[in-house]
Amino acid sequence: MKYFFYDQETQEGIDADDAAEGTEVEIVAAWNALTPTPGSFLGIFETDDKPTLQFMWEEEEDGFDKPWLDIPVPDRQGSYRKIVTREEAAQLLKQTIEGSDPTKIPGLDFEAW
Q1: How many alpha carbons fall within 13 Å on the CB side of residue 109?
Q2: Alpha-carbon distance 93 to 43, whole Å?
Q3: What is the mean pLDDT of residues 66-91?
Q4: What value does the CA radius of gyration of the chain take, rounded to a whole number of Å?
Q5: Of 60, 66, 97, 101, whose CB neighbour count within 10 A is largest?
Q6: Residue of 4, 24, 21, 36 whose CA lies nearest to 93
Q7: One-letter-per-residue 3-state SS of the chain
Q8: pLDDT band with cut points at 50, 70 and 90 for residue 64
């Protein structure tokens, strides 16, 4: 599985265009090490023709500190989205790495860009 990330606090990461191959252990460890700060994110994908699963922190008016699950759908010009906990994100990363279709995650809402 390929992964990419950016940590807003440390200013370190891997660009999506240069995504690294990683094992489940490496990817979940990268997720757990990520600083929960707006602008930080991590994403995974298997191939360019399969969905990208990404988690990100965004600036929220109410100071919300849980990450957003985001699955971009360029053909529809939007993303499937859902707020999750950090622990849920780790589980969803594992399930997707093991072959689950991320577009089948319960509770997803579609939002146009």
Answers
A1: 7
A2: 9
A3: 95
A4: 13
A5: 97
A6: 24
A7: CEEEEEECCCCEEECHHHCEECCHHHHHHHHHHCCCCCCCEEEEECCCCCCCEEEECCCCCCCCCCCEEEEEEHHHCEEEEEECCHHHHHHHHHHHHCCCCHHHCCCCEEEEC
A8: low
Q: Which two tokens stand for residue 11?
A: 């200013």
Instruction: For residues 76 and 97, give the distance between their C-alpha atoms in angstroms, rounded to a whole number.
Output: 24
Chain centre to alpha carbon of residue 103: 13
Percentage of the chain beyond pLDDT 90 is: 88
Q: For residues 69 and 53, is the Cβ–Cβ distance under 8 A? A: yes
Residue 2 token pair? 């390929």
Q: Is the pLDDT assigned to residue 16 strictly greater than 70?
A: yes
Q: Are 21 and 15 in contact (CB under 8 A)?
A: no
Q: Which two tokens stand for residue 15?
A: 């660009």
Could you give the C-alpha distances from 35 to 11, 22, 31, 32, in angstroms and in order? 10, 19, 9, 8
